[in-house]
Amino acid sequence: MATQKYKRIPGGVCGVTGVTAAGLHCGMKANNEPDLALVASEAECNTAAFYTTNRLQGAHISVFKNRLRISRNNAMALLVNAKVANCSTGEQGVRDSNVLCNRVAAQLGVPAEQTLHASTGVIGRRLPMDKITAALPALCAALSKSGGEDAARAIMTTDAAPKSLCIQIGSGKGAYRIGGMAKGAGMIHPNMATMLAFVFTDAAISARALNPIARRVMNKTFNCISVDNDMSPNDTFAVFANGLSRVRIGPGGAPVEEFEDALECLCAELSRQMVLYGEGVTKVVTIEVERARTPAQARTMAMAIADSQLVKTAIFGNDPNWGRILSAACSCGADIDPARATLTIDGQTVFARGEPVSYRRRIMQGKEVHIRLDADNGQASAQRWTGDLSIEYVKINAEYTT
Amino acid sequence: MATQKYKRIPGGVCGVTGVTAAGLHCGMKANNEPDLALVASEAECNTAAFYTTNRLQGAHISVFKNRLRISRNNAMALLVNAKVANCSTGEQGVRDSNVLCNRVAAQLGVPAEQTLHASTGVIGRRLPMDKITAALPALCAALSKSGGEDAARAIMTTDAAPKSLCIQIGSGKGAYRIGGMAKGAGMIHPNMATMLAFVFTDAAISARALNPIARRVMNKTFNCISVDNDMSPNDTFAVFANGLSRVRIGPGGAPVEEFEDALECLCAELSRQMVLYGEGVTKVVTIEVERARTPAQARTMAMAIADSQLVKTAIFGNDPNWGRILSAACSCGADIDPARATLTIDGQTVFARGEPVSYRRRIMQGKEVHIRLDADNGQASAQRWTGDLSIEYVKINAEYTT
């Protein structure tokens, strides 16, 4: 794990100074599973947020954007519900999201414009406002330093496990922490951010400085994963920095590079867990494309391999069907000459410069699969993570009813 | 069926005057299933051929192209094998394909440059030359007017049924015939031609006149289907016209429009059968996008819907999950405003101008599913055909071993 560079601390988002969380069941999920999460910060957070590029967007996204615009990117509280996406619900969906934000703000005594709402679940269904509003007093009262896991569990839909993590960075200027939680199981093909990922830090950094760092990290982590090449309309990634560690990031303070690296490590691990716990996923696949002509071509080829149903079903079947991998990379329009390409699976070369190479059969058997394509056509490289395509994936998505 | 306009006649490609065919088992497929096909014409055929745009191409494709170049688009015999794609086999693959063409030419007594070879199957495996060459004398001897079905069966890989059809067009200038056979089950996402489709006609038309007609037809039929959005490296579509009906197409002869329409009807039905008999397909889905801003955007949205794993698994589950359909159309970069869009499934409006509409639940239950998206944003439209994504698809492709 890349995050092994940094000290892991318990609590998920609550590992961060001044952050409390809660998760409870308000009546949307079956089996009394938590379905409503709240995260709050004692101090205002400078915030950087990114949203799906799908033209279809959840109603919460316009509310989220609007409040951050009014607050000049300051936030103190975040409500998240699972089960209902509040997407394609028209103006009513926007009104519903605003009502929830305002209720939370009033109950916590924080400014309304600093209270945000995100949602995930089935498209086209209205939020059950009575259930959610009835649960808000208990949810606000439950905020605590031990609520991180409940919150991470509450934002799950078909995720096989909650995704929650906190690390501590001990810089020469004192220690600071970054904690995050994420949700994503299907409809994972991010092109801006992925499903839901919320990261809190007690480092002190302005929203203006935070934004480009968070964007670079997002492009190297959440935007590099694919489960099923369907892009969610509700994707949101936000980083909240409350400054309570009193460790300032930047000149005279802790190094920006270290902060960015730590944030990347945290987001990389949340991304990897999204794939690992993706719908029906039995194997995590890392795809590296090297020596491509341009960075865009490297990314396109890596994604073409990651998205190929035939590659993914072969991996599910433990079958090193390298022809499908090569075919996917060669069909995406990138400038690749198969006569120069070399393909390696789990460290074994299976195809070199236009011809198959004999290899030991026991590759692609493990829980982790590693595919490397050397295009021998330039200097650019790209990496992607994906999962296999299993019978369970089809079952989940054939049965996940409207 | 669109082909009901025209009289169906038996025999597949052999329904065409002067065309004979054969199919037999040479030892590649299990269970003595035919795996080697030969089609021959008594007279030279003016030929139009189109190939995959995948950068990875089967060795037979360079041989096919080269021979047609030398013969100035004249062909008399076509050998096709299933099971082994002869792709990614380097120079040896090219030599193998040439050897087979030359052997067939010698045995049939036709010019070598007028003898073509196509192959389909697993990528990266060499043709079993001994088995194939040993079978060639029997194959050539078996050519007959009743061999069309055997040939269509021999080119199948995981296809659930052979695809073979012949129609007769009774023009005022006399009758002529068009017969075709096709192969395609997975890796169906054509971008030039699809898997293998070979059409013969006894109409008289020059290769120069035939080419643009065949290209237009291909773009409206084979290029409109998708099974799993993986593009095969071996796709080839060719039309062979031997002129033996003595019905000339064009000024003074039978109308070009009628010929083009009949060819389109035939290719549309072969395309539809490819989806119907696609890997694990339980439902054939027709997707129509209307009033899009540009034809390219209409096509992109139709294909985004056709390719969405989540749409396809929902259809498999008989679930009218229209949110997934709308989300797919809105995520492909096309200029669509969901607040203006209307979505209809099996004739029922489920979403109109930004808001869900209540509908009768018993839609999407049949073997045929019809999806129509009205973007209300322009004049362009597009149509696509796809299948659902079933548990059987995953099983077939996880077990279809290298």
What is the number of domains of chain A? 2
N to C succession of SSEs of chain A: EEEHEHEHHEEEHEEHEHHHEEEEEH
Helix content of chain A: 25-40%
Number of DSSP strands of chain A?
A: 16
Q: What is the gyration radius of chain A calculated from CA atoms?
A: 22 Å
Q: What kind of oligomer do you see?
A: homodimer
Written overview of the protein:
Two copies of one chain form a homodimer. Chain A folds into two domains: 275 residues, L-amino peptidase D-ALA esterase/amidase (4-Layer Sandwich), CATH 3.60.70.12; 116 residues, Roll (Ubiquitin-like (UB roll)). Helix content of chain A is 31%, strand content 26%. In chain A, the strands form two sheets. In chain A, strands 1, 2, 3, 4, 5, 6, 7, 8 and 10 form a nine-stranded mixed β-sheet that branches. The first copy, chain A, is globular and about 70 Å long. Chains A and B meet through helix 8, helix 9, strand 14 and helix 10 of A and helix 8, helix 9, strand 14 and helix 10 of B.
Key terms:
homodimer; alpha+beta; L-amino peptidase D-ALA esterase/amidase; nine-stranded mixed sheet; seven-stranded mixed sheet
In short, what is this structure?
The structure is a homodimer of 402-residue chains. Chain A has helices at residues 59-70, 90-108, 129-141, 148-154, 207-220, 256-276, 295-307, 309-316, 322-330, 391-399, and strands spanning 7-8, 19-24, 36-51, 74-81, 115-119, 163-171, 174-183, 196-201, 225-226, 236-241, 284-292, 342-345, 348-352, 355-356, 368-374, 380-387.
